[in-house]
Amino acid sequence: MYPFTALANPNIAFIKYWGNRNDALRLPANGSISMNLDGLETRTTVHFDAFLPADDVKINGKIARGAAHARVSKMLDEVRALAGIHHFAWVESENNFPIGTGIASSASAFAALALAATKAAGLDPSPCGDDATSSYHPGALPGHRPGVLPGGHRLDLAALSRLARRGSGSACRSIPGGFVEWAAGTGDADSYAVSIAPPEHWDLADCIAVISTDHKPTGSTEGHAMAGTSPLQSARVDDAPRRLDICRHAILNRDFAAFAEIVEADSNLMHAVMMTSRPPLFYWQPATLAVMQAVRAARAKGLLVCYTIDAGPNVHVICTGAAAEETAKLVGSLPGVREVRLAKVGGPARLVKNPSTNPHEI
Amino acid sequence: MYPFTALANPNIAFIKYWGNRNDALRLPANGSISMNLDGLETRTTVHFDAFLPADDVKINGKIARGAAHARVSKMLDEVRALAGIHHFAWVESENNFPIGTGIASSASAFAALALAATKAAGLDPSPCGDDATSSYHPGALPGHRPGVLPGGHRLDLAALSRLARRGSGSACRSIPGGFVEWAAGTGDADSYAVSIAPPEHWDLADCIAVISTDHKPTGSTEGHAMAGTSPLQSARVDDAPRRLDICRHAILNRDFAAFAEIVEADSNLMHAVMMTSRPPLFYWQPATLAVMQAVRAARAKGLLVCYTIDAGPNVHVICTGAAAEETAKLVGSLPGVREVRLAKVGGPARLVKNPSTNPHEI
User: Fold this and answer.
1) Cβ separation A234–B239 shorter than 8 A
2) ipTM for the assembly
3) Which residues, other chains included, contact A230 with Cβ-Cβ below 8 Å and sequence gap of 6+?
4) Chain A interface with B: residues with Cβ < 8 Å
5) pLDDT digits (tens, 9 = 90+) for A208-248
6) Which residues have a Cβ under 8 Å from the Cβ of B99 and sit 6 or more positions away?
7) Across the interface, do A264 and B286 touch by the CB < 8 Å criterion?
């Protein structure tokens, strides 16, 4: 058994995931649409080792303990059960973006872990061949190109996305590449993400306004569990199919005006639910509101920009590639914006060379 | 026919009115609860005059024209129809608080106009007696003490509140005194406000944080008409009876903790609907959010304060009388707060002496 290293990008949701039908399986209350963020990445290496007395997990150079360790081991348990192995694993994970800037790292982390762990467990019968990664190319759809050759332990993209989902819901969207839709599904078997368009389909960028904050916001897992306490959540969920249709069509037609309206509306709807939960969750800071205002004003003047905000104070300002430079300048000039990070549309989770001595690595 | 002058306070809603079942009659989507704001007032004098060629309306020293004039004349038409008279009227209205500080003036304006105009039109058979005003004392309930003596044109408090409502919905709540509830009702006949407790029932204060803004927010009339475009409005409305019950009991029991939680929740719900309308309505400024945060933090430390926000950037910080001084100091120290105004619980709309020569005035 050899170590394998996988890379995954975080993703930013245009139609948001908030609230579960089933918290344990992370079956979402509604479907969601996102794009992967190129350049921001988690790299995770997994090596199952017969001599380890327990899973040994290192995240960004620090030994993981407690809840963080347990969450990784839970996914490794699933992989061990699928592969029929009993070895503990050595796991090392590194982000190239700082945790605590409010860019969600659990999506890329659990996507990279799911891919590296399944490969390292031998679930793919062709772990050293090109075929193992070709199905993770941009635009690949689960079912269209299974991730493994026939005859071995099959683990296609859908199964990988489902595995990632059980680790952290939005991680399922970091498995396929480009623009991605996660169907709510009817149960564990059909709740996974597929690519609806490859990265090159539409030249968009995410200009992330990192907002200064002293607050430690409520974590997503806890927040999802509170969604149902808002009297508005079921109305938001009931309306989701309409928003998904509009957003999907806007992406496929590269219709920025329609895209901007539905993306901002969906973000506003999620925060409406958050701030009417019990207790209320306020993720916006004064500077968050200032960036939102500036973005609406700039769009009214013709700049192709819109905003979307996750469970934190940062504003993801989505713009066309042509507007990225002007957008970054505008956003960076606003008071309360600590730094600006620019990301283009990212590819799928994929295997990468690792610095170990694995002779079979790609 | 003599001139009469009436005084009315604006009110601040704890359970908010947003959206109508019937825009023309201003029948609200849901019931609401408010308190009148003592010290802030509109004084309006009405004089029906056989020699006037048209209604002559002056508001804060300026001749009213266009929509403002038409809205006043519409109420005068109702009063003329009720009284069976055809004279035009001279109307002069003055606020003691500046319009444009975002303290709603239409509630006190239409409450004062309704009372002055009905008196001036002779709808009360005892316009010069004390009985004419005694029923507007704190805690008076419609039906319990009709506003007029029997035998003439009856116009009780309920009818006066309904008349004010048709001028500006929330004006119906500025007719009775103290803590007031406006029942949504089933139609024009039973949609009016009653006092649920007199001003002296509970020593509360409204510490109004006036926020600097360059924006002219969307007016309430236009905003109400947009409420139904939010996918969240019907859920907010469906949940209103629960909130009304909690708020009413909290007021009657002087339970500040329960009061604070439901008042903030209701404000958040209204703004959730506003910001998810199409197009979205954002009334909050960055400083609005900063005041909200400071209020929650102060309450967590034991200060008896909570916030509520109307269709504008100002924050109404509701506190106990004992906490008013500390609250005003705290709020006034926050960046972006231009000034602080303090109001205690106000009484009902009432007739006052006017500077004219009316020999029958009270």
Assistant:
1) no
2) 0.88
3) A272, A273, A274, A276, A277, A278
4) 231-232, 234-236, 238-239, 264-265, 268-269, 271-273, 275-276, 278, 280, 282, 284-290, 292-293, 336
5) 999 976 666 777 888 899 999 999 999 999 999 999 999 99
6) B60, B105
7) no
